[in-house]
Amino acid sequence: MRYDQLLVRYGELTLKSGNRNTFVNQLKGNVKHALIPLTGYQVHANRDRMYIHLDENIDVEEVIRRVTKVFGVHSVSPVMRVDKELATIQEAAVLVAKDVDEEGRTFKVDVKRSDKNYPMETFELQQVIGGTVLKEVEHLTVNVRQPDHKLTVEIRQDAAYLYSRIEKGAGGLPVGTGGKTLLMLSGGIDSPVAGIEVMKRGVTIEAIHFHSPPFTSEEAKQKVIDLTRIMAETAGEIKLHLVPFTEIQKTIHKVVPENMTMTSTRRMMLKIAERVAGHIDAQAIVNGENLGQVASQTLGSMHAINAVTAMPILRPLLTLDKDEIIIKAKEIGTFDTSIKPFEDCCTIFTPKNPKTNPKLEKIEKFESRFDFEPLLNDAIENIEVLTITKERPEENFSDFL
Ligand code: ATP
Ligand code: MG
Question: Residue 65 contacts by C-beta under 8 Å, 6 or more apart in sequence?
């Protein structure tokens, strides 16, 4: 049994007829990226579908596994291409029918005959091929109205094409078609999931991480790099902005009462994130906040923290339960890295009793006792930017400004 090509269906792209070419081209690029470092295939995309022609030696199941994960792919079917001899088509139909999962028991043959000179009519072909499959594949019976499986046979000029298996794709929109955001990435479970959720809607991300050496370890930093690399499998490459946050955090603990340090820490992070977002032309900030999860994520806290910026903040995990987030983290492959025990800057500086409903006026009053501007500027000037790709282990170091 050998499939010659994959038929890739686009799903939601269909709705966006205006930008269709852009979407299709981006999707094609993303599919090729997902297939690195495999060889032995060619990708052809048209307005309605994409075909991936497969050489003999390529692992078809591996190609299916990778392509179905690409955002913008609705579904994938492996296709068999054979000569138009009736006996050959019948033989292929039996093989293709046997390859669908055993749960569904009914099928229907659907013939599309674009070669109008073919000696048999569509209806006749359906009958003959259906009869063969019925005879040769034990568990199947015909149901033309509501079949569990459809076996499609396309009779084209050059050959006959058969497919039946349909593998569900990741859905969503191709990453790179929806603008850019800056993801606030901690080493925890939630923020990488938040990043993937916005990517699913076609958005490109860069990531920003605040660390406080020597209170936070090299391992904690490496963990964030590793998380970014897992996300880069979906995105191609992701820039990671590492912000030195030690001085700011120490200062907050000097000038703000302990129970409000968490709120102030978040506010300073957000102020820096907003400026970085402006610099990289990102139109929104994304975080992994989740309503009510911890003291810093009550509505009251969000209100006091959010007050420092007018930039939209996207919170894709806002209403999910923790166990729902964990399922997603496992699906995207970040969970095992996220639960490694290296502490990030927030964990280390966590106050014993953080305020769950901090008053904005109060926090502003305490912060105004110290001029944080020079510290914020200093942190921004010393940002380290890494470009993380899935296929290249080393990163490019470059200055932010
Ligand atoms: P996560 O698993 O994403 O860390 P969490 O449940 O631990 O989430 P918090 O630690 O309260 O939640 O952080 C809330 C959000 O703030 C995070 O999801 C992330 O977007 C952002 N954040 C927290 N710490 C950092 C950090 N050190 N650098 C960048 N962003 C951070
Ligand atoms: Mg955290």
Answer: none
At 86 the pLDDT is: 95
Interval 69-102: pLDDT, tens? 999 999 999 999 999 999 999 999 999 999 887 6
pLDDT digits 0-9 by tens, 126-148: 999 999 999 998 888 888 899 99
Picking from 103, 109, 43, 125, the residue whose alpha carbon sits closest to that of residue 76 is 43
Whether residue 48 is found in the same domain as residue 184: no
Quote the CA–CA distance of 9 and 63 in Å, as a whole number: 15
Is 297 one of the annotated binding-site residues? yes
Q: Do 69 and 19 have their domain in common?
A: yes
List the domain range (segments joined by +) for residue 93. 83-165
How much is the pTM?
Answer: 0.89
**72 found inside a domain:** yes
* Distances in whole angstroms, Cα of residue 328 to Cα of each of 74, 124, 183, 190, 351: 19, 48, 17, 9, 29
Ligand 2 geometric centre to CA of 60 (Å): 39
Structure confidence by residue, pLDDT tens digits, 241-278: 999 999 999 999 999 999 999 999 999 999 999 999 99
Q: From ligand 2's centre to the CA of 194, what distance in Å?
A: 12
Last residue of a domain, one of 138, 165, 192: 165
Cα Rg, the chain, nearest whole Å: 27
Which atom number of ligand 1 is nearest to the Cα of residue 346? Answer: 24
Long-range contacts formed by 329-332: CB under 8 A, 24+ apart: 329/189, 329/190, 329/192, 329/193, 332/192, 332/193, 332/196, 332/230, 332/231, 332/234
